[in-house]
Amino acid sequence: MERIKIKFNGNEVEVDSGKTILDVANELGIHIPTLCNFEPLAPKGYCRMCVVEDRGALKASCVTPVAAGMEIQTDTPLVKEARYINLQLLFGERNHYCMYCESSGDCELQDLGYEFGLDHFDFPPYERKFLVDNSHKFLTIDHNRCILCRRCIRACSELAGHFVLGERDRGFNTMIIADVDVPLGESTCTSCGLCAQICPTGTIKDKRAAYLGKEVQSDIIPSTCDICPLGCGINVYRRSGSNFIIKVYGDWDSPINGGVLCKLGRYSVLYDERKRLLASKIRDDFGYRKIDFDGVLKIARSRIGDDAVAYVDGSLYNEELALIKKVFGNNVYSINPVEPPIPSSTDLSGLSKAEGYIVIGVDLNKDYGVVGSMIKRRVLGEEKAKLFVVDDGFNSLTSITENVFTFKDIEQAFDKAKGLKDVVVVFSALSDTIRDTLTKRGELKYLWLPFETNTIGLIKNGIKYEMKSGKNVFFFGKDHKKIRERFPEAFVICATPFEIEETEKIDLLIATKDGFEREGTFYNLEGKSLKRNKALESEYNVIDVIDLLSELSGKTKSEVI
Amino acid sequence: MAKKNTILICNGAACISSGEERIKEKLINKLSEKNLTEEVDIIETGCMGPCQFGPLMIVYPEGSFYIKLNEDKIARIVEEHLLKGRPVKEFTWATPESRRIGEEKKQLPFFEKQFKIVLSNCGRIDPDSIEEYIGTGGYEALGKVINEMTPEQVIDEIYKSGLRGRGGAGFPTGLKWKFAREASGNEKYVICNGDEGDPGAFMDRSICEGDPHAVIEGMEIAGYAIGANQGYIYIRAEYPLAVKRLQNSIQQAKKYGLLGKNIFGSSFNFDIEIRMGAGAFVCGEETALIASVEGKRGMPRPRPPFPANHGLWDKPTIINNVETLANIRHIIIKGSNWFNSIGTEKSKGTKVFALSGKVNNTGLVEVPMGITIKELIFNIGGGIPNNKKFKAVQIGGPSGGCIPENSIDVPVDYESLTNLGVIMGSGGLIVLDEDNCMVNMAKFFLDFTVDESCGQCIPCRAGLRQMYNILNRITRGKGELEDIDRLEKLSNIIKKTSLCGLGQTAPNPILTTLKTFRDEYIEHIVEKKCRAHVCRFEDAEVKDKDEKILKVS
Questions:
Q1: Model pTM?
Q2: Which ranges in A401-513 belong to alpha helices (H)?
Q3: Which of B338, B358, B356 has the alpha carbon at shortest distance from B348?
């Protein structure tokens, strides 16, 4: 990188030649207002708020690279006037009456209005009225608030890779549209919600978060999504002084997802309608009766011994697994499969460099959505990577590629992928035949998507997928389906947060914490240990598995964590 | 057997629309009726220039220039001129002075002050015939370049000639080529910009229709010079005839080994594809054009990086206007010194203009740089019809501005026009007389740019819109004097902060009229009077933005 000399507000500085004026200003700590520019997106220079003066000419600092001999001024009367007028033009274009906007207080346009001391409309505010697109389950688009910065379009394509949002018409008639101008709810939108997270005004909003609280009224808790084994970085917005969550945003700084989330991570955690177990219950001849922590402890203790086995699933964190191992010794098994059909030979950084992808049997628009984003943005974007989908059932990925094969024709997919330099096979569960076919292909790289959040943790703890019976069967986790069927004779103890049909047949039900109430670490699919922080206090009479287990193991909580 | 007469019949789009095909059919019928078919050669040519008088034809060897033809006239011309050898003088184009002098085309004042380089073949040869093009020295320049010159020599020759981009901005062509030559990369591209979108401009269309091979030859030389093997002609889909003729010419040139692989038996390969634009004015801007060729939405992006380094598919690319490319072969054959001797100190060669508006001879003209606006309008254009008073001339389309009467002695060159606050533009000249309202004219062009703004950057998208609202108010008698300040303030910021050339030049029509016709604005505002009786104040109760909004939604 070449070093060049420029003048910045009168001072000579030496900078790297590849940088933009805005980069340099940020390094020097000089404030330049921006609006359409947003760090992970490629700068476009639409809003012209960041103009600076260079020897008489105005330049958009976000897109102009520094060049030798520049004399940048960030605060001249001309710069101020240009920014002011362009801001006035923005306010006059559509409906920007802040007091009627839900985003008032959380709006970058409004912030600029205060920064520039706007106290009136210079231009008659535009009275065009647009319909509000309320067709989507989680999002609403109010075009009246739109400033056409196109951050949503860029995020939808550059980052999330869905390429759903686009624009229609030109000039002041430009409209943000989904697909070929269909209501968002009827479009191919996968509900990743990144557009709402990146929208600087009140145009695209999370429906659920509306009117629950502004950013300043929130405690922002950095955490990790535990829906799938990817472990996306999230920021949980909890209303300050309250015990409810306003919204979940992707963490822009996360090395895993870089801000992108999927429908599950952003919305399903807040829209969860499964029935919680409100208290621990013991079954006797008359049905269930509630039981407190001490009662639970007493029964559990009496059931632990050589004839006790513990089953776990991948929703448990490492700390919990360690304690379970301590209490049950080697009598701990996984209720779900854990072993990879083929171990991964690449990681997420390898995934984001590949030229071709063979996706086998997973619909990445539904599950592992951020992996889907990583692949789609390279397939549909500039890189023009090739995507091959191998699946027998419905797979929504088939709409973006011509290369679709059944399991039977998997060899054809390999043939077509031949010649591509770097091909990653993405899969979760595989049949034996497919696995055997795959292992013969040495040239391919494999990325296994573990079945559950902490499947890797189970493997690392040596917990196997086996069927062992005992007189007393303990189960820890969420996926406790058919456990009674498997062990019809045993005394079954389930520590779980949800009620399902099976619940009626379990001998002791221990209501545990769930979701944002829990904390702990887990291993993601790359084997990185990620920390999940607690964001909510539980409002039910539930038990922390850690508390229970540390009592059972005879240690205090501080000793085990 | 030598033919007795040769007839050149204009087959430009303007003449076709005024009935050229019917005339030609009649002529052929009439000739066979009189058994003259063997003795008369009929050649359909590109645009001859004076489009207003179409359909046109010239009968050689006399050089009788017949205008405004109809079927009756054809019958008499065949009878009198072709059969008996007596030109029908009353049907020829003759102004009172030239009627005496004779029929020769060159002696007409319309042609007298013109200097045809680019248009030298337009109206002289059949554009659908590569043989005729070769007959006029066509592809000689390409042969010379490939066989005798290194790419560096070609660039040097073009640079020394002083040729500047004819698309409007006037960037030295040789320099542009040099940058692309020096840019690293194996793949490079040549793009011919034929996206002529200005209202009232038809220079590029006429060149593509009248002399398509000259454009192709220019592109090939450019390709040789910068090291490109692929060219694209970006042309409006609204120009079907030009597209057809270009396609035909590309096929012919390929058949003759003048395009494609191993041109002139050398190792130089060059291919050309045509890309049709969908009618967005902004696609004339080079980065938007590139996006459009790539198949994306035609929207400009910030520069730098410039296309010479990061152009089509991120490869070094040069984009030259049709007229620029049509100049190349003449420079190569006749040398840079010859080209250098034409024009002014900083603006060399000629410029093609499309004359339109309130002028007697509308049409396509080519003049040496440095000719005055006055000569253009009053000598070549033949003055203002109906004894009206000349008011101003609008140059450069929606990006240009108005030159008022007191400045019409200004020479036509890049610098002089820039000093007047207007631009050379691609060559549209609209003459305005006392019946034109300058405020309304400014509004017309602003309406155009508002519609054509791509909508990316805020000053162009919303600023022009607000300016349009203000002008609309003024032309309806609802303006206030502060509006003039607002217009000036907005113009200034829009010019300085817009992302691409469209926004940066869009306020020019307003700024130039505000400078020289400020009294008309004030008249509209204070006296609610339009001296040209164009603006109507009686329906002023119509709210200003409604009209536009209803049209939109």
A1: 0.90
A2: 410-417, 432-439, 455-460, 483-486
A3: B338
CATH code given to domain B5-109: 3.40.30.10
pLDDT at A445 over 50: yes
Contact B155, B174 (CB under 8 A): yes
Overall residue count recorded for chain B in this entry: 553
Residue contact A127–B466, C-beta within 8 A: no
Q: Do A78 and B496 touch (CB under 8 A)?
A: yes
Where does residue B262 rank: exposed (0-12), middle (13-18), buried (19+ CB within 10 A)? exposed
The minimum CA-CA distance between A8 and chain B, rounded to whole Å, is 20
State which fold the B350-433 domain adopts: Ubiquitin-like (UB roll) (3.10.20)
Tell me which chain A residues have a C-beta less than 8 angstroms from the C-beta of B451.
Answer: 171
Whole-number pLDDT of residue B101: 45
Hey, which CATH number is domain B438-527, 1.10.10.10, 3.40.50.10490, 1.20.1440.230, 1.10.150.750?
Answer: 1.20.1440.230
Residue A240 three-state SS: coil
**Helix, strand, coil % (nearest 5) of chain B?**
50, 15, 35
Q: Two tokens at A254? A: 């996360």
Same domain, yes or no: A8 and A143? no
Task: Inspect the interface and report whether the beta carbons of A170 and B304 lie closer than 8 Å.
Answer: no
Q: Residue A44's closest CA among A198, A153, A181?
A: A153
Cα separation, B65 vs B82, in Å, equals 14
Structural contact between residues B315 and B337, judged by C-beta atoms closer than 8 angstroms: no
d(CA A2, CA A24): 14
Alpha-carbon distance of A12 to A28, in angstroms, equals: 12
Please give the ipTM for the structure prediction: 0.88
Beta strands A332-334; B5-10: pairing state: unpaired
**Model pLDDT, residue B548:** 44
Strand-strand pairing, B230-236 and B271-277: parallel
- Residue B129, C-beta contacts closer than 8 angstroms, at least 6 positions apart: none
Q: Are residues A186 and A222 in the same domain?
A: no
CATH superfamily of B130-340: NADH-ubiquinone oxidoreductase 51kDa subunit (3.40.50.11540)
pLDDT in tens, A152-180: 999 999 999 999 999 999 998 999 999 99
Give every CB contact of residue A534 below 8 A, 6+ residues apart in sequence: A221, A516, A517, A518, A519
Q: Are A79 and A9 in contact (CB under 8 A)?
A: no
Cβ neighbours for A72, distance < 8 A, ≥ 6 positions apart = A6, A7, A8, A9, A21, A24, A25, A52, A53, A54, A61
Nearest to B496 among A82, A92, A169 (CB): A82
Per residue in A516-559, pLDDT (tens digit) is 999 999 999 999 999 999 999 998 889 999 999 998 887 665 66
**d(CA B320, nearest CA chain A) in Å:** 25
Cα B394 from Cα B413, distance rounded (Å) = 15
Q: What is the dihedral of CA B306, B309, B315, B319, to 10 degrees?
A: 60
Q: Show which of A433, A448, A463 is a domain's final residue.
A: A448
Domain containing A105 equals 91-206
Of the pLDDT bands very low, low, confident and very high (cuts 50, 70, 90), residue A370 is very high
Helices (H) and strands (E) in chain B, counts: 26, 13
Tell me the two tokens of residue B524: 């509209």
Domain closes at, from A448, A466, A490: A448
The model's confidence at residue B51, banded by pLDDT at 50, 70 and 90, is confident
Q: Taking CB atoms and an 8 Å limit, are B450 and A128 in contact across chains?
A: no
Region A272-294 average pLDDT: 89
Residue B506 corresponds to which tokens in the numbers above? 């869009």
Backbone phi and psi for residue A406, each to the nearest 5 degrees, phi listed first: -85, 165
